[in-house]
Amino acid sequence: MYTAMSFQDDHLKLIDQKRLPHEEIWIDCRSLEDVAQSIENMTVRGAPAIATAAAYALVLDTLHSQAANWKQYKDRFFENCKRLQATRPTAVNLFNALHSVRCIADLWTDSTSFDQIQKHILAFAKELELADLSNCKAIGAFGAKLAGGKKLRVMTHCNTGSLATAGYGTALGVIRALHEQGLIEHVYVDETRPYLQGSRLTAFELAAEGIPYSIQIDSAAAYIMKHERVDLVVVGADRIAANGDTANKVGTYSLAIVAKHHNVPFYVAAPRSTFDPKIMHGDQIPIEMRSPKEVLEHAGILVAPARAEARNPSFDVTPSELISGLITEFGVLQKPFGPAIQKLFSQD
Length: 348
Ligand code: MRU
Hints:
CATH superfamily of the largest domain: Translation initiation factor eif-2b, domain 2
CATH class of the largest domain: Alpha Beta
Bound molecules: 5-S-methyl-1-O-phosphono-5-thio-D-ribulose
Strand order of the largest sheet: 6-5-4-7-10-15-16
Shape: globular
Radius of gyration: 20 Å
CATH topology of the largest domain: Rossmann fold
Number of strands: 16
Mean pLDDT: 97
Oligomer: single chain
Distance between the termini: 29 Å
Low-confidence stretches: none
CATH architecture of the largest domain: 3-Layer(aba) Sandwich
Helix content: 25-40%
Structural class: alpha/beta
Strand content: 15-25%
């Protein structure tokens, strides 16, 4: 299984996801800024993977400080958190991870030794990574039960696999778990314009596992649902509001509408760290607008008139009424999502 990153004591190795599938190039990040830029330029992407990379960025920064204690380090630490928060706005896992590490920092006093701080931040990053992996496996196991033992033809969007997480994946984790149980007949992969996470990354992961798949352009999903058998759509998420409205890679919303029209169940798979219960509904989720170049160019070649304008929202919000269920590491949340999400945050 491919991994997005590997921490090596004094640097963080990131597989350059911009170069996949044809080139496997690992980038060595030695500073917090290296990691921040790698998140911004999508060397590492996918909501849970961004959060883990950011946690290791905080670790890297501690390696470059001469501080003796918390009093001497705290301003820099909070500046670091701000820098990481400014990288990408939509996936809440990043903000949740930074909030958790700041809660740990609340327990430090001015005289807490730098040695202790360093150990705590490293332990935090390692735990985040391990927890994400086990959450993905639990999501996969709960999701696979939806099949009821029947072989499925599944459609998915974007990349939600081991490259987008600490390993195994969320929606792709469900597909992986189904495959492990012999329950995947076929996977339909949306190519996922404009960044092509589906054709470049999801197809790459499925091929490595020997899972049968085909790629279609995003706008062919309706045609395929009308003319072929699709039993289930499963996608990931970047932020889920308190009512279940879900921000995910742009194109997810149209896919959900198409699934509804064809009576195909539409599930979202995501760990609790992707929920944002402070946000009441999807309209409040900040949506990243990326460069028009990603739309106007293909492999660096302009494919539109010179000076053409383009809109490039990187995510959209699928209203909760289009979602059949939310697959989490605690089980599958059913409607009404509001109370189910409240309950999710009351258990441990
Ligand atoms: O822009 P990206 O590639 O970071 O967007 C990724 C997605 O939208 C994924 O579907 C989402 O982060 C879930 S990843 C487990």
